[in-house]
Amino acid sequence: MKALTLSAPGTSDVLEYKEVADPALKADEILVRMEAIGLNFADIMRRSGVYPLRGNAPYINGYEGAGVVIDNNKNTMFKPGDRVGFADVPFANAELVAVPVAHVIPLPADISFETAASVLLQGLTAQFLTSDSHRVNQGETVLIHAAAGGVGQLLIQVCKLLGAKVIGLTSSESKRDISLSLGADHVFLYSEDWKAKTSALFPNGVDVVYDSVGSTMKDSLEVARICGQVVLFGLAGDKLELGNPLLIIANSKTITGGDLWNYLTSGEERVKRAQQLFGWVRSKQLTVSIPTLFKLSDGKQAHDFLESRKSTGKILLIP
């Protein structure tokens, strides 16, 4: 099979599209021919060496995608031809992927491969962030960093579904427009004095800040209310800046981390959460933006586009 590989961490120049051995199936795995693969910022972090890569060189990145079962390996839960997706299976940047049965998410007939690969990882992330890391309630105020990004767009919509007021932060006017179109009540640019603008709207602070940047943590803590919460679920800024920790103590503010892997603990949990997500999409309560498509063989260009911060919504790799 063909796969997008790398032999050592580095820039996008380390990526190579080449022939590798087909996966060798274990007893609890099925073989899926990939139709669409989700590219996420975590893949950039793994490629650059910030996050670890699984397996041995040549490494295959990627954890999310959708496709068709071509070998059920005597597992009776699935049969060849079944349409499936997954959010947490390594080595996804390939034509064929060995998927543990417990990680398989059946796709409804009205959910396309592209939609599944666009929404599973980031949609399930938005879901657990608003139900587990912090339970968003009616009337709360929420501030979302990188609001026009893949997770940010879905977070806006889920928070509005749950009855919250939403402030989004973006880097450009075009991204501001996208965030407002998805229901954000207010959207500020990072180049503005967004902390002052937020404080003018909510003098007592916001209930929760969703921070995927890390280097913005000091500012996030400042705009959170007394006894408020900051949920850190990414490190796009490559570093974490807390400011004076005594202010966290004095104002009883809470920082919690968020990682989807800690919530997808069983096959039943994956399917249950995915069914709710697909239900939101089906009922049009959740709008999935049209993804940007790259051939898997053009993975370098896809990585460069994601790192340019010019993308909005999802980037998909198509084998």
Shape: globular
Helical percentage: 25-40%
Tell me the structural class. Answer: alpha/beta
CATH superfamily of the largest domain: Medium-chain alcohol dehydrogenases, catalytic domain
**How many structural domains does the protein architecture include?**
2
CATH architecture of the largest domain: Alpha-Beta Complex
Major sheet summary line: 7 strands, mixed
CATH topology annotation of the largest domain: Quinone Oxidoreductase, Chain A, domain 1
Compute the average pLDDT.
95
Distance separating the two termini:
10 Å
- How much of the sequence lies in strands comes to 25-35%
Radius of gyration: 20 Å
User: Number of helix segments?
Assistant: 9
List keywords for this structure.
319 residues; alpha/beta; Quinone Oxidoreductase, Chain A, domain 1; 2 domains; 7-stranded mixed β-sheet; 6-stranded parallel β-sheet; 16 strands
Summarize the structure.
The protein is an alpha/beta fold and 319 residues long. The chain has helices at 41-48, 113-133, 150-161, 173-181, 194-201, 217-223, 245-250, 267-282, 299-307; strands at 2-6, 16-19, 29-39, 59-60, 64-71, 83-86, 96-100, 105-106, 141-144, 165-170, 186-189, 206-211, 224-232, 254-257, 292-295, 315-318.
Topology diagram in text:
Layout: E1 2-6, E2 16-19, E3 29-39, H1 41-48, E4 59-60, E5 64-71, E6 83-86, E7 96-100, E8 105-106, H2 113-133, E9 141-144, H3 150-161, E10 165-170, H4 173-181, E11 186-189, H5 194-201, E12 206-211, H6 217-223, E13 224-232, H7 245-250, E14 254-257, H8 267-282, E15 292-295, H9 299-307, E16 315-318
Parallel strand pairs: 9-10, 9-12, 10-11, 12-13, 13-14, 15-16
Antiparallel strand pairs: 1-2, 1-4, 3-5, 3-7, 3-16, 5-6, 6-8
